[in-house]
Design brief:
With 186 residues, the protein is mostly helical. The chain is built from six helices and two strands; from the N terminus they run αβααβααα. It is found in: Membrane.
């Protein structure tokens, strides 16, 4: 059981470091003349992710979580998502953020996984929220937060795409790219 708590704690620490990076990147974008879009829904995104970890910790404590062989599949997908997360964050560099930060006139990033789809980071988050609980048989957390995340992302993506279309070359660069399914055209 201790190993489960250590694993989840490491993921939480990763998220805390990411928020620190995001805050630093947001300040840089603001200094360049950028601004935040969609501020109203951000608190729901933060609450969703915080409650996800609370729910996960409660469920793994209440449910008799132990290693089962099939858990290797969601563990593999979760670890693959971590590699893809680093790829996506590295590709965006200072433009990566947990908030919707817009720098008017900037050229949108179309390298790394962004060469293939518009929102690789959201695909990664969806994968993580589904797979992490499944590793520990926390089925209720997996189901509930997959649904809640879909609701929040349905709002966030529309706001993000509109803000990017209004202030950058987003439409031009991503007109042939799908949101979540890779395309391999250049």
């Amino acid at each position: 059981m201790l190993a489960i708590y250590i694993f989840i704690t490491l993921v939480i620490l990763q998220r805390i470091v990411e928020v620190m990076i995001a805050n630093r990147n947001a300040e840089w974008i603001k200094r360049q003349g950028g601004y935040e879009a969609g501020r109203g829904h951000y608190k729901f995104l933060v609450a969703l992710h915080a409650l996800f970890f609370v729910s996960l910790l409660i469920e793994v404590t209440v449910v008799d979580s132990r290693f089962v062989f099939w858990a290797v599949a969601p563990l593999f997908l979760f670890l693959l998502a971590q590699i893809c997360r680093v790829w996506a964050l590295t590709a965006l560099g200072r433009f990566w953020n947990t908030r919707i930060m817009i720098l008017p006139g900037a050229q949108v990033v179309a390298k790394g996984p962004y060469r293939y789809l518009r929102h690789p980071n959201y695909v990664i988050v969806v994968t993580e929220l589904a797979c992490l609980p499944l590793i520990f048989q926390a089925y209720w957390t997996a189901i509930l937060f997959t649904i809640l995340n879909a609701l929040v992302l349905s709002i966030r993506i529309k706001v993000e795409e509109q803000a990017l279309e209004d202030a950058t070359n987003y439409q031009e660069v991503f007109k042939k790219k799908r949101r979540f399914v890779p395309t391999y055209e250049d």
